[in-house]
């Protein structure tokens, strides 16, 4: 199941990361072009997150490998873009640290919970999905960094990123609360 259509879409999300980052660091045109191209690339590749899940179910090509790779690709894409945005001064470093730190902590927690056979207690919850959706809207707004159809994308992107930070902390607390009974049981 390494090379199914859904898994290939997930791989393209990972392959897109150097492209999106390079747009800002390879001199090839006015800065406005870089913003527009990076935004377009991010949107196209973020949509593959929806498409790969839909196609996996529709084509009956779900797999354990795909279930592993999909969230990894999302975390790589979001983390890379957050780091670029922090470097460009469009995102606060603390927002970046909270978002990336949570992803590392919850990934480690899920891995540990899987090893002890309690992975269901930290299954994806609606707060986590809402966090991801908010990030996926905030990031292209911040990548674009201008006025689009009368919308100040930096203002809205910054506001949405902080909403994502709140949801990030909320979801982390939720998952930790669900895991604490298992952690306590294993500590005895």
Descriptive report:
- It is a single chain.
- The protein has six helices and two strands, in the order αααααββα.
- The chain has helices at residues 5-25, 31-58, 64-87, 93-115, 126-144, 153-187, and strands at 147-148, 151-152.
- A hairpin with a 2-residue loop joins strand 1 and strand 2 (151-152).
- Helix 3 runs antiparallel to helix 4 and helix 4 runs parallel beside helix 6.
Chain oligomer state? single chain
Q: How many H/I helical runs?
A: 6
Largest sheet: 2 strands, antiparallel
Rg, nearest Å: 18 Å
User: Widest sheet: strand order?
Assistant: 1-2
Total DSSP E strands: 2
Considering DSSP H and I runs of 4 or more, what fraction of the residues is helical? over 70%
Question: What integer is the average pLDDT?
Answer: 87
Shape: globular
Q: Which sequence of SSEs, written as H and E, runs from N to C?
A: HHHHHEEH
Write out key terms for the chains shown.
188 residues; mainly alpha; 6 helices; 80% helix; globular
Concise account of the structure shown:
With 188 residues, the chain is mainly α.
Secondary structure layout:
Elements: H1 5-25, H2 31-58, H3 64-87, H4 93-115, H5 126-144, E1 147-148, E2 151-152, H6 153-187
Antiparallel strand pairs: 1-2
């Amino acid at each position: 199941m390494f090379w199914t259509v859904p898994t290939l879409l997930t791989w393209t999300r990972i392959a897109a990361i150097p492209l999106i980052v390079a747009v800002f660091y390879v001199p090839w045109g006015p800065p406005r072009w870089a913003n527009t191209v990076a935004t377009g690339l991010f949107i196209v590749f973020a949509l593959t997150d929806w498409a790969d899940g839909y196609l996996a179910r529709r084509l009956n090509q779900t797999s354990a490998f795909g279930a592993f790779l999909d969230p990894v690709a999302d975390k790589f894409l979001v983390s890379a873009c957050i780091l670029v945005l922090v470097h460009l001064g469009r995102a606060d470093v603390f927002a970046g640290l909270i978002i990336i730190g949570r992803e590392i902590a919850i990934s480690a927690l899920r891995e540990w919970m899987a090893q002890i056979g309690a992975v269901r207690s930290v299954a994806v919850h609606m707060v986590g999905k809402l966090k991801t959706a908010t990030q996926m809207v905030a990031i292209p707004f911040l990548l674009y960094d201008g006025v689009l159809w009368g919308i100040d994308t930096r203002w809205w992107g910054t506001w949405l990123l902080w909403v994502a930070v709140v949801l990030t902390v909320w979801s982390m607390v939720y998952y930790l609360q669900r895991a604490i009974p298992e952690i306590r049981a294993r500590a005895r």
